[in-house]
């Protein structure tokens, strides 16, 4: 098969916000305890943070991490996790049927995030709590001192306010599984009240209203329209969440799912713009895709998990090469829509549906680590439109699916233009011919490729590099043209240094 592609320096989709490469840590399973935090573990530092995990997280260059949930946050009392550890209560976590010791709380997490070179995206409990707890938490975190909540923080040894910028107004409040689940009107009103109060404190904070927990919800997209009707003038983002499964072991349709992700984004954009028009607003609502990933491998094991234990292994998906390809496609969907998707969180970061796994003795990158690693390092700057005449196959649900999923970025500061390409074909290579319009190319700076003889191959502690991206020479540059033969079922990246 053959495909002709064109990118042009002038054909910009929009600037890529660095926070497109965010991630997520929830008090869930072994994400916190045994993941980022494990006092006494061989690599743990004096605060109990695992240095081996921090190294892998820092390598991913994650600019922001959402915390502390997720479903967990909707019944969480943030006050339980601050102050002297020996006075912190042990509680039931209704969301995951576990026991939360509160050994880690927001101050410990903020210290961890600093070590990970990340900002914190703080989520508020709008399930069992509301305005009062939300405003107190914002004051505790962000006010310098001299008031009850800021002085409480200072008494906990944190003299300077954190200045957390991004606040999520609850989590998946449309989901019947959510503690304190609400109708769109109930949630929209509460979110607007909280947002108004937070804005009274500091109008420069960035607020995220809950959109639908998936595009498959029966209330989608009425939920978005109703929630934004209440909140439009007070929030900056509407959230999107998506997890893909391959339960039928049907790889072509698994790989097609990211086209559904593009459709989901476009529908949310359309709904937000409808509310904008209805309100005669000048503001354009941006999107925070603050949970996205593949999630299904662990479902059976989780259904057998004993309830009410402390940090049991939950949602421990072992990701194979197929999942890495889908991850590559999902990242492409985010880059392709970077004009409106300004933040995104790979859910999650460690042990729980995560690119990084740990044992007591070590940690290692899953297959899905690699597309994220290269996109986060090379895919910054501006997202470019890609004209691509790729051949296509038919998916029963989504229609024509191009074999090639391609995005392009231009980082003027770094002097590079980059292509990220997934070849969805099960058995055929695709020869590409790419024209780089308006660029003056110096040479290929970096080219990497992920393929696997066994699509089901996974990494583990004994073989952490079974599935990974490796340097390649499949791409050639001649003048302002890139050519190459993309192997079937492959993810690749080529970065061209510019004059
Ligand atoms: O990321 C795992 C869970 O998925 C989150 O807690 C929830 O928000 C979503 O349903």
Key traits:
499 residues; alpha/beta; Immunoglobulin-like; TIM Barrel; 10 helices; binds alpha-L-arabinofuranose
Short description:
With 499 residues, the chain is of the alpha/beta class. It is built from ten helices and 26 strands. A hairpin with a 3-residue loop joins strand 17 (392-395) and strand 18.
Describe the structure.
With 499 residues, this protein is an alpha/beta fold. The chain folds into two domains: 2-9 and 384-498, Immunoglobulin-like (Sandwich), CATH 2.60.40.1180; 17-378, Glycosidases (TIM Barrel). Helix content is 25%, strand content 27%. The chain has ten helices and 26 strands. It has helices at residues 51-60, 106-115, 131-142, 148-155, 184-201, 222-231, 251-278, 299-303, 321-336, 369-378, and strands at 2-8, 12-16, 22-24, 64-67, 91-93, 98-100, 119-123, 166-169, 206-209, 237-244, 286-294, 341-346, 356-358, 363-365, 381-384, 387-388, 392-395, 399-402, 404-411, 416-423, 430-437, 441-450, 470-471, 475-478, 481-486, 490-498. An eight-stranded parallel beta barrel has the order 3-4-7-8-9-10-11-12, surrounded by five helices. A seven-stranded antiparallel beta sheet has the order 2-15-19-20-26-22-23, covered by helices on one side. Helix 3 (131-142) packs across helix 4 (148-155), helix 7 (251-278) runs parallel beside helix 9 and helix 9 packs parallel to helix 10 (369-378). The radius of gyration is 22 Å and the shape is globular. The model has no long low-confidence stretch (mean pLDDT 98). The site of alpha-L-arabinofuranose has 10 residues, from loops.
């Amino acid at each position: 098969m053959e495909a002709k592609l064109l990118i042009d320096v002038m054909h910009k989709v929009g600037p890529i916000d660095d926070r497109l490469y965010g991630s997520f840590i929830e008090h869930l399973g072994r994400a916190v305890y045994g993941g980022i935090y494990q006092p006494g573990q061989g690599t743990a530092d004096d605060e109990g943070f695992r240095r081996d995990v921090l190294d892998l997280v820092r390598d991913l260059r994650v600019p922001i991490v959402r915390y502390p949930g997720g479903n967990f946050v909707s019944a969480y009392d943030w006050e339980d996790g601050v102050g002297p550890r020996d006075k912190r209560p042990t509680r039931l976590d209704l969301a995951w049927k576990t026991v939360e010791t509160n050994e880690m709380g927001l101050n410990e997490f903020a210290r961890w995030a600093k070590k990970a070179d990340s900002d914190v995206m703080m989520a508020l409990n709008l399930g069992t709590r509301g305005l009062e707890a939300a405003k107190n938490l914002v004051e505790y975190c962000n006010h310098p001192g001299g008031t009850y909540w800021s002085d409480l923080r200072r008494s906990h040894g944190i003299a300077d306010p954190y200045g957390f910028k991004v606040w999520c107004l609850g989590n998946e409040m449309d989901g019947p599984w959510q503690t304190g689940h609400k109708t769109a009107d109930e949630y929209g009103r509460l979110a607007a009240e909280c947002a108004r109060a937070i804005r009274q404190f500091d109008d420069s904070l960035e607020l995220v209203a809950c959109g639908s927990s998936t595009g498959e919800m029966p209330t989608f997209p009425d939920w978005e329209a109703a929630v934004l009707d209440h909140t439009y003038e007070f929030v900056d983002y509407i959230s999107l969440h998506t997890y893909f499964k391959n339960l039928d072991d049907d790889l072509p349709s698994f790989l097609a799912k990211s086209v559904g992700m593009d459709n989901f984004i476009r529908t949310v954009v359309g709904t937000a713009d409808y509310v904008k028009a209805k309100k005669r607003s000048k503001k354009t609502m941006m999107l925070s895709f603050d949970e996205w990933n593949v999630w299904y491998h662990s479902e059976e094991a989780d259904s057998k998990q004993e309830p009410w234990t402390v940090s049991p292994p939950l949602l421990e998906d072992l990701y194979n090469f197929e999942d890495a390809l889908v991850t590559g496609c999902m990242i492409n969907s985010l880059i392709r829509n970077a004009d409106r998707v300004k933040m995104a969180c790979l859910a999650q970061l460690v042990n729980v549906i995560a690119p990084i796994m740990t044992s007591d003795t070590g940690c290692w990158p899953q297959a899905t680590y690699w597309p994220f690693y290269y996109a986060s390092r090379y895919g910054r700057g501006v997202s470019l439109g890609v004209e691509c005449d790729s051949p296509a196959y038919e998916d029963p649900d989504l229609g024509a699916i191009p074999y090639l999923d391609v995005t392009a970025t231009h980082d003027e500061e770094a002097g590079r233009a980059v292509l990220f390409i997934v070849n969805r074909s099960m058995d055929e290579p695709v020869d590409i011919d790419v024209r780089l319009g308006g660029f003056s190319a110096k040479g290929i700076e970096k080219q990497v490729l992920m393929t696997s003889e066994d699509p089901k191959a996974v990494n583990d502690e004994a073989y952490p590099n079974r599935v990974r991206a490796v340097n390649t020479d499949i791409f050639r540059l001649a003048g302002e043209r890139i050519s190459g033969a993309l192997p079937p079922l492959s993810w690749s990246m080529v970065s061209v240094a510019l004059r």
